Amino acid sequence: MSPKIESFVMHCGEMGSRWGFNRTVGQMYGLILISEEALSAVDIAEALNISRGNVSMGIKELQSWRLVNLQHKAGDRKDYYVPAGSIWEMANRVFEERRKREMDPTLSLLRDNLLDEPANQQEVYAQQKMHEIHDLLETITQWASELQRMSPEKLNTLMKLGSGVGKVLDLKDRILKSGSVK
Asked: Where does the HTH marR-type domain start and stop, copy by copy (predicted)?
């Protein structure tokens, strides 16, 4: 690997641990992602200096996240791996998996706790805070679902709007408070 590619692959390892999988799996994904050709388990093991068993377990993890696809080459019995879709699709899959693993269980716990009658003032206060957290997570989940249905072009346009959306909302608030534009 060239120094630039190695730097990217190592960084993906660090990011992988933040996304929800281990460093080696992150490195494997980074390598697969920026490789022009499909990579075999042997290619991955040699490039990253890891065991074939480690590669096999990492590939299974990446497949469970739906981030890599298996590819075959005519006349070759080896399995080869390629990224499963575009960068936008990858981002959507990572977000979706994190939602399933992190937000859904939290929402489920909050719903269960909010169904119970509070036994004392401490629980009344706690439930009020849990309700706020629940509402925030529900809003984030609904918003993210809407974003995931958008085309990459629309998402890109939305992100480029950036702080401009906040300025429009601030203007709207000023108009509603004063009855006119200032």
From this structure: 31-78
